[in-house]
DNA sequence: GACGTTTCCGAACACAGTGTTCGACAACGT
DNA sequence: ACGTTGTCGAACACTGTGTTCGGAAACGTC
């Protein structure tokens, strides 16, 4: 009974798809709510009945995937980078739209928080606060991710995970 | 004879100062051109005689500092991270406004390019493309920088440079 | 299949912010 | 004291936002 009405599902799904399409075509910043409405063929008032603004739609579009990523990380918290790379590889289209250079930086920030939280409890280096170590690694991992996305996912996720392990030997986490 | 007119200097300086102030107070994204005009007490048409938009003002405000940073890096290209940290420490107010979390991400992107270019020619790790190594390190360094800024420059620049050296021992660059 | 409910549409609206124009005036450097 | 150049301020057209509301259509349920 939670999601009973088909029309609601249809509207939200259509809007999400339109957003992804348009971000890939023209980049998030350049998009207008009206652009999304036209592409999705959804009425203006309908949009605002579902989302507060463009940003809310963006974040909602990432909700499902983020939840799954979080679950995976919770299940195996000792190798968040590997999980992130595999996850992105499985959802290339969405990750390209939301985490690539043309996506809004908001989603990246969320992922940053996710990975940062996981790393903070895994990493330890003598004489350096765990917070700082985690920050360095998280930023590095996301740098690798964005590079990978912008290079069309050349190489598999194992390769990238190997690169990370090679570049950050100061700890056990991968 | 290049910059003869005092009025021009005054206008540009006032606008830059107003921008920095307001970014520190309310964040770049939330700012209106009109806000900047009010704070600087400069006419609307005058603003557009100098800058195409808010973004152009932001980048111009970073021009001087960026040039000096580039010169420093060119002079000692083997330790770009250390130079960046020292540079930020010397210009805390501007860096806080332009590279902190509340600054537009544009300036950060510029710095990213600067550091990335320098690192790409310094780093080498067997079996990993230099491009990827540089991307990882650059992102990590900028992560450290942002963390440092957001923690009010606690510790000196040497400390942060030491942290970086400790976390990224896969190369000689510091 | 008929029902009451929920959602959607679409047009209208007020509003905020952008970037441009122009004439009058003031400040400038020489 | 001069001609030049920058600034002001008000007006304007324009784009995009977020809201409102009544009528129509689709929905789930019984």
TrEMBL record, chains A, B:
List the PROSITE patterns: HTH_TETR_2
Where is each HTH tetR-type domain found? Answer: 9-69
GO MF entry, a single one: DNA binding
What's the superkingdom here?
A: Bacteria
Q: What keywords sit in the KW lines?
A: DNA-binding
Q: Which residues bind DNA?
A: 32-51
Classification via InterPro entries: Homeodomain-like_sf, HTH-type_Tx_Regulator, HTH_TetR, TetR_C_Firmicutes
Name-wise, this protein is AcrR family transcriptional regulator
- The record lists the organism as Kutzneria buriramensis
């Amino acid at each position: 009974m939670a999601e009973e009405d088909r029309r609601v599902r249809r509207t939200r799904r259509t809007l999400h798809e339109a957003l992804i399409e348009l971000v890939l075509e023209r980049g998030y910043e350049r998009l207008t709510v009206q652009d999304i409405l036209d592409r999705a063929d959804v009425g203006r008032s309908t949009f605002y009945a579902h989302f507060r603004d463009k940003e809310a739609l963006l974040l909602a579009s990432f909700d499902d995937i983020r939840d799954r990523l979080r679950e995976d990380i919770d299940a195996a918290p000792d190798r968040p980078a590997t999980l992130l790379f595999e996850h992105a590889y499985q959802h290339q289209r969405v990750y390209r739209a939301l985490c690539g250079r043309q996506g809004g930086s908001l989603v990246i920030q969320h992922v940053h928080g996710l990975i940062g939280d996981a790393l903070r409890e895994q990493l330890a280096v003598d004489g350096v606060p765990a917070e700082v170590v985690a920050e360095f690694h998280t930023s590095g991992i996301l740098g690798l991710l964005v590079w990978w996305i912008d290079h069309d996912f050349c190489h598999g996720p194992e390769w990238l995970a190997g690169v990370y392990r090679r570049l950050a030997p100061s700890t056990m986490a991968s």
